[in-house]
């Protein structure tokens, strides 16, 4: 594991200096991510996930859920409402503290986050900026037909509070005792002053968060445990060690609720930046909600007769941001048989399609057998079926979206009832009997 101090290392942007442009372009061209409402000229840094993007994003979230919930017996899931009472945000401190410092350029009237610029307007270069003022990032709306103070509601700016307000419900219904966690994946909304870098910072995004409730004297041990676990998750799914690091927050960077935080950072084309924050949130949230709601948010340990407010260790990741990091890390160009290709070396667990079934030719006689092969494979893998263009072009198209295996049905297949399985990374091809192809692919995907 790479653990480095906070100082920014020089970004290693080679070998693709324009990698961001290539990813944005590929995302649009192949149906990962489209600018939202494009036929109306787009809408302020919002994005729609296309047929391949929705698969990749779902795989990222599923991989997180599998590691954080399915493979453990100490974490359970919830799915809380996005729209909720302002009382939650009053208690959590978001109404008072969830702000960014906003400055206006008096020359060109652009608005900026004061902490992200260096005293001059990035648009026109003027140094004539207003004094920073606190701008609250929460999206405000009204629940019901009347727009008045009593009906104000907010879209959640983080999924975390859903776990705190359901703490008692979960303890009572599951009989879990600390250390245990509550996990949630879902949309969050922040009225970011300057959304930027494609889906890195957007106003609508998805989070994958887990609140791990522990006895207070075990908080530090669990904090370090989750640092290791979370770093391991990204490495296991193919982010290279050289592009991943842990950065511990300095005391003056800590959120109002935290005594220790470390970020998992990825080496983006513009430098090291955050993928996930892991924080010791202490008993701040449970105590705050207890004080505001009048409910006792404590754990009563029947075996010891002890009653206490657990501390919380929170690994908080962004699903949409992490999906983009996986795309950036997977991108490569190489040469196969003298021909250049673009290839995404995505882990098969993340790849939108795991298999493409490709009849060698569009001729009618290959289609029924190809569909038979497709039907055999669909229960074990997410499959594409492509009959257009030459087989070479179709291999390139699958490489470009990261499909780990192509299964080709040719004219010999009609005689020998076998197909060719091609590996994306090595381009090696092996002949496999149709009767064994599902098991062959399932075996390769299990590896
Ligand atoms: N509950 C703690 C919390 O929300 P955060 O560091 O503000 O912590 C956690 O957010 C993660 O959510 C970030 O590390 C990032 O991956 C993602 N995230 C936050 N704001 C985002 C935005 N505007 N666009 C995309 N992802 C965002």
How are the SSEs placed, and which strands pair?
Blueprint lengths: L18 H12 L2 E3 L11 E3 L1 H20 L4 E3 L5 E2 L1 H7 L1 H4 L1 E6 L6 E3 L19 E4 L3 E3 L9 E4 L4 H6 L1 H8 L5 E10 L14 E11 L4 H18 L7 E5 L11 E9 L2 E12 L1 H10 L5 E3 L4 E3 L2 E8 H12 E6 L2 E6 L10 E5 L7 H11 L5 E3 L5 H10 L4 E5 L1 H6 L1 E6 L5 E5 H13 L1
Parallel strand pairs: 3-10, 20-21, 20-22
Antiparallel strand pairs: 1-2, 4-9, 5-6, 5-7, 8-9, 10-11, 11-17, 12-13, 13-14, 14-17, 15-16, 18-19, 22-23, 23-24
Helix pairs in contact: 2-9, 3-8
The protein binds glycyl-adenosine-5'-phosphate.
Proportion of residues in helical segments: 25-40%
The helix count comes to: 13
Find the structural class using helix and strand composition: alpha+beta
Radius of gyration: 25 Å
Report the principal-axis shape.
Answer: globular
Bound molecules: glycyl-adenosine-5'-phosphate
Provide the spatial order of strands within the biggest beta sheet: 3-10-11-17-14-13-12
Proportion of β residues?
A: 25-35%
Mean pLDDT: 95
Would you report the number of β strands? 24
Low-confidence stretches: 1-10
Largest sheet: 7 strands, mixed
Distance between the termini: 23 Å
